[in-house]
């Protein structure tokens, strides 16, 4: 039987036989004759390898005979692997969070007036023995203000039912906080955001390790120190808790994360329901996830289980709020998202423009210049990429990284000059890495996992729904608090894309540009958050001084202000001193008569510094400032507190 028939019977091809013969010649160090072989290219390679085989064999024999000194390893030295320190970094950042909370604990003031309103609601709930959240309007306030027109908690922050008052904020989080307040005092209120903040870092590290240890390490570093996640983890608010619940739902539902659709879908629905019960604006994240699941038909079974879990979680909470408040979605959700008939500008372009500033604060000239320049460079680089793909790939990524460096430097400069980063661009600069495109090769784009696309689509849906459905951007805060659920997924996408760009860099210039962009954005984000923590300390200390100053009033003193936010940032005054908000001269005239009827001879007024308001002019007509009682309080904005007594006839 000849050689061809043997190969045909054994199922081997001529090409395989040729490779087998070449391999035998290589093994024995022989050169292959190109005339005898069907593939001259293999023969040329084989000849080169065959010629080098004797030398390679001698080198291997010599290395095998050489003995290593004692203690010397034959393995190559390992490079520094940041992924092995991921969990150590989580512990370090968590310890930093705890240290910040403990350092700020002597300041009893809060960052936001929302926290003060919730504290008042918690104290009322504790006083009622947790039987009902409604508080009665009694005491000196009820005598001086029988129609509760001057109540410190008026619309839109509270709802009234006769002489009972209830805040509009969601009750489950306030109920949990009231238990902590009763057990551990004011410091215990920071336990939920702190635990959720550290838990969010651990969840981000766990998800990041599914791709690489380096991704997990830098995700924790960027999220924990270079984004507003740090700020909201040390502030009495429910944003971090709601965000972690949303991230857990994403991890359970998005493909390639979990395989059990039934259990993971129901668990994800329960997480989403708990997130909405914590923060009503989390509803936009819920709708965005449902939209992502609806688009893909293969995810419809998961959509059904998620909906079932969401219904189970929301049934109890919605029924309770409908029975207590009268609205199933709650007063806060109705105020922030439900359009009202009398507010004609709800769907106006002006409101959409204001809401879009959560992403980019367009009123800053520096931001406009940076964005305009970046768009111009991006357009030119993209056009050039169509003509010279190879060169444009290197140039484009370098130019993009330079633009990100400019954004980072601009963020630090503006924040150092007093700019308040209420937008995502400056609140978390490292998230800009998610939009790098040029350095990404075509094959890496084609092989991207479904989770990346769906996570990116979810982020876009969250932004769109927050802008379209929302009615408030969150106010004067440090970072876009209504977009806090975006921080984890967006930072994960950014770091994962940076990792692929850095590994696939075609030149050292491109690699250094990508690395430099990451380092600059991390340093800029850390600097912004450091300024935010210092601002947090100043605000809380100023509000603490305000409350203590108002509480030091003598007996039979009524505290009066024309500023709606003063009662919110000084909630400790509610049950100790009569506290009224007088806005117009007519309201003061009516109150003046009641003060005379009750024999009240002293009024402590809190007003803006260096500004004479209508209330001050009205009081000055029949009252005068008592000498030695004027004090300036370092709040933001600064306030002046002074005692007024009736003028002598």
Structural features, described:
It is a single chain. With 649 residues, the protein is mainly α. It contains 26 helices and nine strands. The strands form two sheets. Strands 4, 5, 6, 7, 8 and 9 form a six-stranded mixed sheet that branches. Strand 2 and strand 3 form a beta hairpin. The longest helix has 44 residues. The protein is globular, with a radius of gyration of 33 Å. About 13% of the residues have low confidence.
Q: Rg to the nearest angstrom?
A: 33 Å
Would you count the extended β strands for me?
Answer: 9
Task: Name the average pLDDT.
Answer: 79
Strand proportion:
5-15%
Distance between the termini: 135 Å
Please summarize the sheet with the most strands: 6 strands, mixed
Number of helices, counting only DSSP H or I runs of 4 residues or more:
26
Class from secondary-structure proportions: mainly alpha
Shape: globular
> Percent of residues in helical segments?
55-70%
- The residue ranges in which pLDDT falls below 50 over 5 or more consecutive positions are 6-77, 340-346, 441-448
Task: Give a summary of the structure in a few sentences.
By secondary structure, the protein is mainly α. The protein is built from 26 helices and 9 strands.
Fold blueprint:
Elements: H1 3-10, H2 14-28, H3 40-65, H4 86-104, H5 113-127, E1 135-136, H6 140-144, E2 158-161, E3 164-167, H7 171-184, H8 191-208, H9 213-225, H10 229-233, H11 239-253, H12 261-278, H13 283-295, H14 300-324, H15 331-336, H16 349-356, H17 365-387, H18 389-416, H19 424-427, H20 442-446, H21 450-469, H22 487-503, H23 508-551, E4 558-561, H24 566-569, E5 579-581, H25 585-598, E6 603-608, H26 614-620, E7 623-625, E8 631-633, E9 639-646
Parallel strand pairs: 4-5, 4-6
Antiparallel strand pairs: 1-3, 2-3, 6-9, 7-9, 8-9
Helix pairs in contact: 2-3, 4-8, 4-9, 5-7, 8-9, 8-11, 8-22, 9-22, 11-12, 12-14, 13-21, 16-21, 17-18, 18-23, 22-23
């Amino acid at each position: 039987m000849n050689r061809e028939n043997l190969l045909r019977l054994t199922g081997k091809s001529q090409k395989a036989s040729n490779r087998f013969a070449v391999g035998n010649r290589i093994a024995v160090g022989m050169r292959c004759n190109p005339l005898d072989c069907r593939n001259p290219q293999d023969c040329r390679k084989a000849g080169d390898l065959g010629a080098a085989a004797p030398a390679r064999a001698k080198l291997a024999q010599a290395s095998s005979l050489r003995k290593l000194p004692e203690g010397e390893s034959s393995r190559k030295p390992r490079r520094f692997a940041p992924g092995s320190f991921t969990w150590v970094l989580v512990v370090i950042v968590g310890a930093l969070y705890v240290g910040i909370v403990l350092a700020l604990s002597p300041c009893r003031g809060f960052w936001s007036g929302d926290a003060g309103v919730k504290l008042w609601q918690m104290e009322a709930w504790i006083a009622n023995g947790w039987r009902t959240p409604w508080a009665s309007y009694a005491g000196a306030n009820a005598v001086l203000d029988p129609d509760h027109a001057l109540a410190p908690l008026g619309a839109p922050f509270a709802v009234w039912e006769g002489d009972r008052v209830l805040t509009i904020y969601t009750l489950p989080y306030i109920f949990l906080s009231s238990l902590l307040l009763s057990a551990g005092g004011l410091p215990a209120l920071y336990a939920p955001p702190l635990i959720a903040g550290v838990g969010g870092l651990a969840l981000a590290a766990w998800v990041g390790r599914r791709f690489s240890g380096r991704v997990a390490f830098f995700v924790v570093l960027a999220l924990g120190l270079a984004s507003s996640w740090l700020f909201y983890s040390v502030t009495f608010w429910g944003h971090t808790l709601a965000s972690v619940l949303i991230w857990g739902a994403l991890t359970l539902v998005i493909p390639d994360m979990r395989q059990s659709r039934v259990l993971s879908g129901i668990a994800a629905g329960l997480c989403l329901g708990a997130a909405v019960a914590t923060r009503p604006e989390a509803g936009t994240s819920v709708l965005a996830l449902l939209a992502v699941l609806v688009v893909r038909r293969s995810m419809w079974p998961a959509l059904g289980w998620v909906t079932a879990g969401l219904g189970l979680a929301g049934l109890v909470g919605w029924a309770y709020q409908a029975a207590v408040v009268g609205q199933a979605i709650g007063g806060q959700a109705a105020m922030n998202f439900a359009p009202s008939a009398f507010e004609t500008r709800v769907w106006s372009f002006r409101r959409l423009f204001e809401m879009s500033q959560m992403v980019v604060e367009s009123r800053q000239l520096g931001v406009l210049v940076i964005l305009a320049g970046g768009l111009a460079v991006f357009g030119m680089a993209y056009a050039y990429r169509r003509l010279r793909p190879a060169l444009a790939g290197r140039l484009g990524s370098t130019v993009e990284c330079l633009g990100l460096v400019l954004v980072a430097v601009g963020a630090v400069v503006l924040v150092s000059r007093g700019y308040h980063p209420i937008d995502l661009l400056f609140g978390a600069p490292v998230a800009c890495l998610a939009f790098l495109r040029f350095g990404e090769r075509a094959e890496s784009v084609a092989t991207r996992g479904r989770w990346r696309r769906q996570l990116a689509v979810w982020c876009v849906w969250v932004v769109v729904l927050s802008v379209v459905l929302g009615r408030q951007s969150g106010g004067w805060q440090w970072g876009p608090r209504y977009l806090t659920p975006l921080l984890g997924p967006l930072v994960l996408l950014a770091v994962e894309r940076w990792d692929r760009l850095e590994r696939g860099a075609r030149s050292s210039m491109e690699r250094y540009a990508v690395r430099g962009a990451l380092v600059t954005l991390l340093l800029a984000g850390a600097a912004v958050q450091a300024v935010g923590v210092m601002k947090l300390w100043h605000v809380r200390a100023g509000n603490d001084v305000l409350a203590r100053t108002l509480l030091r009033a003598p007996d039979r003193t009524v505290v009066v202000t024309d500023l709606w936010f003063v009662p919110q940032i000084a909630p400790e005054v509610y049950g100790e001193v009569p506290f009224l908000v007088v806005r117009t001269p007519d309201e003061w005239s009516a109150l003046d008569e009641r003060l005379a009827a009750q024999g009240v001879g002293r009024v402590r007024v809190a007003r803006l510094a260096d500004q004479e308001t209508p209330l001050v002019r009205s009081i000055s007509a029949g009252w005068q400032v008592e000498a030695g009682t004027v004090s300036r309080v370092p709040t933001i904005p600064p306030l002046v507190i002074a005692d007024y007594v009736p003028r002598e006839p």
